[in-house]
Automatic annotation (TrEMBL), chain A:
InterPro entries: AAA+_ATPase (IPR003593), ABC_transporter-like_ATP-bd (IPR003439), ABC_transporter_ATP-bind (IPR050166), ABC_transpr_FbpC (IPR015853), P-loop_NTPase (IPR027417). It comes from Falsiroseomonas algicola. One of its GO terms (cellular component) is membrane. GO terms for molecular function: ABC-type ferric iron transporter activity; ATP binding; ATP hydrolysis activity. It comes from the Bacteria. This is ABC transporter ATP-binding protein. Pfam families: ABC_tran (PF00005). SMART domains: AAA. Keywords: ATP-binding, Cell membrane, Membrane, Nucleotide-binding, Transport. Belongs to the ABC transporter superfamily.
From TrEMBL, chain B:
It is found in: Cell membrane. This is ABC transporter permease. It is a multi-pass membrane protein. Coiled coil: none annotated. The chain crosses the membrane at residues 63-80, 92-115, 121-141, 176-196, 216-239.
Length: 256, 249
């Protein structure tokens, strides 16, 4: 899918990365439109985490460029949600203080910090006590706190690395519904890594299917389903058609 | 209450065994007096104030060396742990001196600090500082990588990550090191009080009582030293529970 440059929030050109001489990316290109949710789907070890970690500036590239409206990632406000919420939150701080932490780093005045905290709690319909420590919360509540912490800084780009993979199905469904509502409301450009095809389609404006290493794009699928996408959307003909196309591609390119 | 029953039963059993050994004349009564006599002698010494003063002096020396050890060991350990490559290069030296019996260092420290009070403090602080440093460094090295990355992506600078993440990640291990350090400081202080010109302290009292054949008092002093070590350990366990509420969860 080619996107006019002025609409591209993220623009990756000629990306290269190898581990111990084994290439993961050798000349990878990608453009992401502003406000789009891009789901990245691919087999274990194909380099999904590597891709978003390089994009988020957590991992050095071996070559190529990753630009945000022409800016380097260091000059962009980003949010990142880790797969393992247990190891990403600070257990010595209360949940609310975890969310306040990046705002204090930014040096925001106290009333503004509290205003953002309250607005997030409202958007995500938080009904548990944010004054608790993370280990006193359920897994779903902890991951919700991680998501709130990532969004608190009002990021220009949000990265989510398999955010639901450690949660049970029921929790995943409810968190997924909350997340899509909020992401679409604030319109933040999002890169979502997922292992779950259904989840990738439901949450995304566009689905990128990756091959095994050396990684290339197997298919680039636009997902033009109407928002919001509740449980009913999972059985709509359009959804089923997209899923069938993806499974075909998966069998042909990825599993081959 | 149930939790107290077992240790009390153990202690009573131990005293009974002692009494039985006295009845069976396992050893000369001069060397092994009955527990009641040991208790009366010790109580008398406490009331007279001499044993109380000895205990206080030992506590003072232990605490002073422990504080010095903490002030050096924690910051240095955290700093070394943050640069793992640097820590690896000094690891051997730290490990070597950590494994060296502190008593073997007495002559060296007497040369450096003279035969007085400062030598006792210095040796104990040296031993304890190495234990604390070692634990603090490992606490930092084993910090959860994800938390460091999370802080970095939220815009935390190097020093901020150190203060907001690494020190907290290492805190459980630092407290373990401090607990081991205070126990070691007590051991070294008591030994130093025996052999490096002393006029007070539990170590001095034990060896004095032994030379004067005051066996009751000797056992009592040993008991006080043991109780002191036990109490310090317990105190630090309570502090750990209180301050690292998140550990292991
Ligand atoms: N630090 C590293 N050192 C060496 N190899 C690495 C390193 N990080 C990743 N790799 C390798 O690079 C490849 C891509 O890893 P990556 O974690 O990006 O995969 P992934 O697509 O996220 O997989 P998963 O679905 O299991 O999360 C893997 O084969 C992995 O073994
Ligand atoms: Mg991954």
């Amino acid at each position: 899918m080619s996107i006019p440059p002025r609409q591209a929030a993220i623009s990756i050109r000629g990306l290269r990365k190898a581990f111990g001489g084994q290439p993961v990316y050798s000349g990878f290109d990608l453009d992401v439109r502003r406000g789009d949710i891009l789901a990245i789907f691919g087999p274990n070890g194909c380099g999904k985490s590597t891709l978003i970690n390089m994009a988020a500036g957590l991992l050095a590239t071996d070559g190529g460029t990753i630009l945000y409206d022409g800016r380097d990632v260091a000059d962009v406000r980003v949010g990142y949600v880790f797969q393992n919420y247990r190891e990403a939150l600070f257990p010595w701080r209360r949940a609310a203080d975890n969310i306040r932490y990046p705002l204090r780093l930014m040096g925001l005045p106290k009333p503004e910090i509290e205003r953002r905290l309250e607005r997030l709690a409202t958007s995500f319909r938080v009904r548990f006590d944010l004054h608790r420590y993370p280990y006193e919360l359920s897994g779903g509540q902890q991951q919700l706190v991680s998501i709130m912490r990532a969004l608190a800084v009002e990021p220009e780009v949000l990265f989510l690395d398999e955010p639901f993979s450690a949660l049970d199905y029921e929790t995943t469904l409810s968190l997924r519904d909350l997340l899509q509502a909020v992401l679409k409301e604030i319109g933040v450009t999002t890169l979502l890594v997922s292992h779950d095809l259904e989840e990738s389609i439901v949450l995304a404006d566009r689905l990128l299917m990756l091959t095994r290493r050396p990684t290339t794009v197997a298919d680039d699928v636009p997902v033009a389903l109407p928002w919001p996408r509740g449980t009913a959307a999972l059985s709509s003909p359009d959804f089923v058609a997209i899923k069938a196309r993806c499974l075909d591609v998966f069998q042909a390119a990825v599993a081959a | 209450m149930k939790t107290l029953a077992a240790p009390v039963a153990g202690a009573v059993g131990f005293i009974l065994l002692w009494q039985v050994a006295v009845w069976l004349r396992v050893a000369d009564p001069i060397l092994l007096p009955p527990p009641a006599e040991a208790f009366t002698d010790t109580w008398a010494a406490l009331v007279r104030g001499t044993l109380a003063l000895d205990t206080w002096r030992t506590v003072q020396r232990t605490m002073l060396s422990f504080l010095i050890a903490t002030a050096i060991g924690v910051p240095l350990g955290v700093a070394l742990g943050a640069k793992e490559s640097v820590y690896r290069s000094v690891e051997f030296v730290v490990d070597f001196f950590r494994s060296t019996p502190a008593s073997a260092m007495f002559p060296l420290f007497i040369v450096l600090f003279g035969p007085g009070e400062s030598t006792k403090i210095a040796v104990a602080a040296f031993g304890a500082a190495l234990v604390i440093l070692f634990n603090a460094a490992y606490g930092v090295i084993n910090a959860r990588r994800t938390r460091v990355l999370a802080a970095r992506i939220m815009g935390a600078s190097g020093p901020r990550i150190m203060a907001d993440v690494l020190v907290w990640e290492a805190l459980p291990q630092i407290l373990v090191g401090m607990r081991a350090g205070v126990s070691l400081a007590l051991v070294i202080v008591v030994v130093a009080e025996m052999f490096i010109g002393s006029t007070d302290g539990l170590g001095h009292r034990v060896i004095n009582a032994q030379m004067l054949f005051e066996s009751g008092l000797m056992y009592g002093t040993i008991f006080v030293a043991g109780a002191l070590g036990y109490a310090l350990n317990l105190l630090f366990l309570l502090i750990e529970k209180r301050f690292v509420h998140w550990a292991g969860r």
